[in-house]
Amino acid sequence: MTVLERGRLDEDRAKPRTAGELVRSAHLQRWEQVRPAPGRCLVTAGRDQRLAVGVPMLLTALFVQTWFRPGRFLASGDRGPFVVGLDGITRIWGYGLTGTGSTAPESPLLLDRLVHDLVLGIGGSSTLAERSVTTLVGAAAAGATAWLACTVVRRWQAAAAAGLVAVLNPFHIFTLPNLLPMVAIAACATAAGTGVRAWQRRPVHPAAAALLAVAAAPLARNPPLLVLFAAVVGVSLLAAHRSGFRHVLRTMCWFGAGSLSWLVPVALHYLSGTPGLAVTATTDVGDWAWTHRNSQFPNVVSLVAAWAWGDPDTNPASATLSGAGWWPLRFALPMLALSAVLVSTRRRLAAALVAFTAVLLVFSVGFVAPFESLNRFLTDVIPGWWLFREPMTKFGVLIVPAYAVLVALTVDGLAQWRTWRLGGARAATYGATLLGLAAVAFAHPMWLGTVVPGERAYLPPGRSAIPAEWYRIADWLDRAPGTGSVLVLPLSEYYQRGTEWGYYGVDDLVDRLVDRPALFQLPGGYYAAAGAVPGLLQATEDAVLSGNGPAADRLLDALGVRYVLVRTDLELGWGTNRTFADGHALAAAARGLGPLEECAAFDHAAVFVHDGGARITAATEWVDAVAAPVPRPGEP
After folding, report:
1. What does the pLDDT look like over 548-582, one tens digit per residue?
2. 8-state DSSP, 77
3. How far is CA 423 from each of CA 28, 110, 417, 419, 428, rounded to the nearest angstrom?
4. Are 439 and 410 in contact (CB under 8 A)?
């Protein structure tokens, strides 16, 4: 048999003979015609990529506006009113962590403070600055996830769907108003997108690494999220080796340069022994097992595994979604993501991504069956695993973009099915559309604004306005003569407190408003004041209440206190077993105390001066010293 005859025989054998082989051959021929060139980003056209990123960013920016009300802050729980300034941004010593002075790098908040001062500089207000920052963060999370999805899909619509999923999902319903999870999603998606492009030999310009480093700065204030981001960056650098060692080195240099503004202060903060600080974070995950009470596997898969989920007072939106009419829709998003394994043209990638997501879901269950034993083992064996003591809020920042990319693969695969005119493509498309609509409907608090609590039976609303009186108090203290700190009484036994003007959350208002160093307490957080300072503060309050003037005089001198601010706007009724002193009783006791003299009275506080015995007796001198206060920027 000649070579030509043997070749013809091989061709005849290779021809499809059965109907199934004919269909499979037709599919392969179509895929050969449309598949992208190897090593290239699938959404390659500049216009398509701009649409893929820009559309979800624009839509996100629009529905974020529904979270706000004119003149009010998104302030509740761990998020205080957005009142910041550039004062102290270059110092490593601050008062924000404990209220008593310690290494407390503020540089990770540089972007917030720059936007705040920029908005105020053009005539805006602090509430407008908060709206601007929140819009930027939400749009960045959507755009970064869409940019990541562009590396694995062909159609910009699929990548845009991924960007919307990154924000329109139940995970944010219980994490807002805390923006750090959105920042983490944006940072991790950007790092992953950079790594995938490097793997495809389409490296992004190394200068983009500097921008990523600046944007990720807020994560320095949350060690668990910073660890997850560092892990994603490490994997991305490993993937970048396909672009050459020189490119990896340049990328690392650019990233290092961009992170110097926050990495150096944070490193000094942690590596110098945290002077002034005692780490009081609970490292026993068992003590946090109560936060896992809703972490059953179905809840984790549907991104609703929050300890407060379903509580009508803490999170009214989740209570609505827990109703019988909404509850079945919670599985729409995971079902749409899982469909990528069935319909995507990149099934191996989809299967790998599903496996990766499944591992994260198992970790997120925490100390709940059926994976309690595994997670307890990881906690006991792996050093630092206690950082993920509330796992859903941490691993969720990786699960959300993974779901988003899987949804993009599903949408892209269904579109390809319709292009190939495969049987069942129309029915599959209709089914996926229904799942998508159900997922968007389930996340309706995100685009209707009800994600921020309104009137509640027990706690105040999630939006609050700082009374104008507090701006006048802050201006008075900053303009008052003499140096020294201001002591804020009554001391708190927990870092969150409520006020008579409709706010319940982290109690650092005086530190946010006043430039003069303020001494106060924020117990119950990651840190506490080290040394004798907490005891001195408590002894001072006790001396004032008991009328012990000489003891109060010595203690105030030891603390370097010039002014004592007694708050009378705190509400004792919010919270269980609250034991802090009554502000009105403290003010009355301070008025009869020798070392203190009342020098200003406001609706929400009384101010007393302490000068070691050389007190000013003429009230007119005080009036002249602080007359005609200049309104502070952003004052309503």
Report:
1. 989 999 999 988 899 999 999 998 766 556 778 88
2. B
3. 16, 55, 9, 11, 10
4. no
